[in-house]
Amino acid sequence: MNHMNNIKKYYEDNYKEGYPDYYIQGWENKTAQEMRFKELVGQINLTNKRILDVGCGTGNLLEYINQRYIGFDYTGVDILPHMINIAQGKKLKGRFICMDLFKNNPFRSNSFDAIFSSGIFNLNLGNNKEFLMDALDVFQELSRGVISFNLLWDKSPDREDKYFYFDPDKVGHLLTEKYGMYWTVTILKGYLNNDFTVLLKKKQIS
Predict the structure, then answer these.
(1) Which end of the chain has less Cβ packing within 10 Å, N or C?
(2) What residue ranges define each of the domains in the chain, with the CATH number in brackets?
(3) Distance of CA 5 to CAs 9, 80, 93, 116, 125, Å?
C-alpha cells in the first residue's frame, strides 16, 4: 500500500489537543459520525462476535458499540500513534494496536466475525480504487462473516479536491463481479447526502 505517509500527514495536521474526537478524525460533527456508525453496524448482531475495526482512530466506534451490544471481542488498528494513545487512554474494553494492517498483517484467515472500516478510503490518494480493492482482498481473507465500510458519494453537494468520491452503483457492480460468488453485496444510502455504506456478507455454501 502506497500513500500511507499522506494519510498520516493529514491526520497529524488535523490533531489539536483538546479538540473533539470527530474533528481530529476529519468528520464534520458528532451527529454525522454516529449516523455513519449506525449504518455501519446496524444490520449486524455483534453480541459474542469477534470484531476488527480498521482505522479505529480514537475508539469512537467501540464506544458506540459498547452502548448497544455485550460480550463481543474488539480489536482496533490504526497507523497513527497519537490516535491509538487517545483510544487506549479511554480504558475501553478492547485492544488498540498501532500498525499498518496492509503492510504487516499478523492475523490468521477467518479470525473475525465482522470487519468495520469508517473513513479510511476518504482521502484522495491518487489510487483510491486500487487501494479499496487491495484492502478488500485483506478484509475478505480475515472475515468469516461480515465486512462493512463507508465511502464518500460522488453526488455529494460539497465536494473537495482532497477527498475521493465513489459512484455507489459502480462500486456495487465491481464488488459483485469480483466477490459475488462468496459474498452478497448491499449498498446502503440515503442517511447522509455525501456518504454511503457497503455491506458484504459471506454466503453459506453448502
Answers:
(1) C
(2) 4-202 (3.40.50.150)
(3) 6, 10, 30, 22, 10
